[in-house]
């Protein structure tokens, strides 16, 4: 696949060219197939989660409400980058307009900020359910849940809007080839001919504050949850509580571990870690959690697993009748 030529412009370029994953061009076909398969699973699984929760009146609880919103955010996050990635890997179509590049950047970073807030809200839900079960309905009223979601989305919008605005208003007078497979902030910042330190520093500080505060509150919630669980006299109740929390912890590990590794490798160890490893880690960070989240919740949450099976059986029977 031929690489786009490097262009040099005085004004901001009308088009960027995404390089893909430098050094892994020989694996592009396999990557296109793998990413297409994961994206299909993410779309199908998260759509099933949303459909099941919205259709079943027995699942109208706070935990499932947050899970439904999480599934929607996962679809947005994966859809922001994967179709373009697959296009690069399969056909070599690497061009993306200036506005589309910054729109992609905005949706990716905003979606990740919303997702970390939702994981905190889900941890709070489990804390109330296990530590204060008698007050669960009184505390987690619909008005509070809606307020939490609005707050989480507002925080993402208010924190990520300045990031995209600052970078998009810097002069781009160098190469218009982005050494990445999507418009990742640090990769685009390398192309400006002014000092990108303020916008890069804002990105690092903002991400660290949001993720750091969320993980601290999540850790505190689960510390209190574990203390309450192990004080239960019934072993069956302990297993049930730990099983419910286990799926949440698994989803959080999938999201936070590669995400933080990607951020700090790009900022601190970009000269040590090979570029293709950095780009591949950032790509997997955006596609693996949306792919596995519905699988984890579908397998570990009995109510969702049963409703999914019933929905698929009904759809299969209707297909046979028609």
From TrEMBL:
Record keywords: Cell membrane, G-protein coupled receptor, Membrane, Olfaction, Receptor, Sensory transduction, Transducer, Transmembrane, Transmembrane helix
GO cellular component: plasma membrane
Lipid bilayer topology: Multi-pass membrane protein
Superkingdom of this protein's organism: Eukaryota
Presence of the UniProt keyword Lyase in the record: no
Residue ranges constituting the G-protein coupled receptors family 1 profile domain according to the UniProt record: 45-297
A GO molecular-function descriptor: G protein-coupled receptor activity
Family, per entry: Belongs to the G-protein coupled receptor 1 family.
Known role: Odorant receptor.
Name of the protein: Olfactory receptor
Lineage: Eukaryota, Metazoa, Chordata, Craniata, Vertebrata
């Amino acid at each position: 696949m031929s690489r786009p030529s490097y262009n040099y412009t005085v004004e901001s370029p009308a088009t960027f060219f995404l390089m893909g994953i430098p050094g892994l061009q020989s694996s592009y076909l396999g990557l296109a197939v793998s990413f297409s398969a994961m994206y299909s699973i993410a779309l199908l699984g998260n759509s099933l989660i949303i459909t099941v929760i919205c259709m079943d009146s027995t699942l109208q609880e706070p935990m499932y409400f947050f899970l439904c919103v999480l599934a929607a955010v996962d679809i947005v996050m994966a859809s922001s980058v994967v179709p373009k990635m697959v296009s690069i890997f399969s056909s070599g179509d690497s061009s993306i307009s200036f506005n589309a590049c910054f729109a992609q950047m905005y949706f990716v970073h905003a979606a990740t900020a919303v997702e970390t807030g939702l994981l905190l809200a889900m941890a709070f839900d489990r804390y109330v359910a296990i530590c204060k079960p008698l007050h669960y309905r009184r505390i987690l009223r619909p008005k509070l849940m809606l307020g939490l979601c609005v707050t989480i989305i507002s925080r993402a919008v208010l924190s990520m809007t300045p990031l995209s605005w600052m970078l998009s208003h810097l002069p781009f007078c160098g190469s218009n080839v982005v050494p990445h497979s999507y418009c990742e902030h640090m990769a685009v910042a390398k192309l400006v001919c002014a000092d990108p330190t303020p916008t890069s520093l804002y990105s690092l500080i903002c991400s660290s504050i949001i993720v750091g505060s969320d993980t601290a509150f999540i850790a505190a919630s689960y510390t209190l949850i574990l203390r309450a669980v192990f004080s239960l006299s019934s072993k069956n109740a302990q297993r049930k509580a730990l099983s419910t929390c286990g799926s949440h912890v698994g989803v959080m590990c999938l999201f936070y571990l590669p995400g933080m590794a990607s951020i700090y490798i790009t900022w601190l160890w970009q000269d040590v870690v090979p570029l293709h490893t950095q780009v591949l880690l950032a790509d997997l960070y955006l596609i693996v959690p949306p792919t596995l989240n519905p699988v984890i919740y579908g397998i570990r949450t009995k109510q969702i697993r049963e409703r999914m099976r019933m929905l698929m059986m009904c759809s299969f029977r209707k297909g046979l009748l028609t």
